[in-house]
Amino acid sequence: MLSERRLEVLRAIVQDYVGTEEPVGSKALTERHKLGVSPATVRNDMAVLEEEGFIAQPHTSAGRIPTDKGYRLFVDRLAGVKPLSAPERRAIQNFLDGAVDLDDVVGRTVRLLAQLTRQVAVVQYPSLTRSTVRHVELLSLAPARLMLVLITDTGRVEQRMIDCPAPFGETSLADLRARLNSRVVGRRFSDVPQLVQDLPESFEPEDRGTVSTVLAILLETLVEETEERLVIGGTANLTRFGHDFPLTIRPVLEALEEHVVLLKLLGEAKESGGMGVTVRIGHENAHEGLNSTSVVSVGYGSGDEAVAKLGVVGPTRMDYPGTMGAVRAVARYVGQILAES
């Protein structure tokens, strides 16, 4: 275990390196931070931190920089989440409050996160599997053609056209709409198949074919993989950090283009974090292209359960307290909007 003083030295090195982009020397540390010890003692502490793998010496400069292991310890032990200022919180609220529908909420969230953190923002659409049904609407378009509209508690709206095997009257349609909603409203998607399986038998024989068709389309809509949707913004922000990517920025850009990779990253964060902020640093990201980046993510949703993830991707040399604070605050506001929508 590192002593408190050495933890303080590590914290000072991380803060200075993130702020200045320059490797940090013992003299600068003692000048800039009230460490209460001589430069010789700081040098000794730095030697121990280097030996333990928390800091490293890049090329021949006299200074040291944090390693992935050093950043990990900083995030786990030394970094509080930096709360946003009142004007920042108001700006988030005003920007997100103007959203007109779910697509707009997601689009605005991506732009906002990218601006606040000056990193690449990633927002996953609310997952259907963790959603509940708010309403099922059935509209008649022609005697044997219907439109099914499924509305979820997270504000998603899915529409499907249905060609019926036989004409379906307005009375039967109203009956089906009422019975369907009485069974499925407020229920989780995973429960719906069980709840509607015996519905066709309760209708007249000539209507059963159409009822079965409607249910088949509804269940198909519930299980479709439409939840695997991501929106990414602020990729251009990466160009400001050219020197943070040792060889080239290309592997990072290629990884960001692969939505499967990002979904997996957010998914891994989900397993370990629920609604809490998760930080994956450097080589903790399984995808090779992201070994020089950190991913800060959090779940968002109405209530205590996350229905999806949002987060940012940036170089490992990032302002972790500030980024974690921004990601958490934005997730909270998006959750509120979903709860009220």
Structure at a glance:
This protein is α+β, with helices and mostly antiparallel strands and 341 residues long. The protein has helices at 4-20, 26-32, 39-51, 68-78, 86-97, 102-117, 170-184, 192-196, 205-223, 250-257, 259-273, 320-340, and strands spanning 55-56, 65-66, 120-124, 133-142, 145-152, 157-163, 230-233, 278-281, 293-300, 308-315. Helix 1 (4-20) crosses helix 3, helix 5 (86-97) runs parallel beside helix 12 (320-340) and helix 6 runs antiparallel to helix 12 (320-340).
List the helices and strands and how they pair.
Layout: H1 4-20, H2 26-32, H3 39-51, E1 55-56, E2 65-66, H4 68-78, H5 86-97, H6 102-117, E3 120-124, E4 133-142, E5 145-152, E6 157-163, H7 170-184, H8 192-196, H9 205-223, E7 230-233, H10 250-257, H11 259-273, E8 278-281, E9 293-300, E10 308-315, H12 320-340
Antiparallel strand pairs: 1-2, 3-7, 3-10, 4-5, 5-6, 8-9, 9-10
Helix pairs in contact: 1-3, 1-4, 2-3, 5-12, 6-12
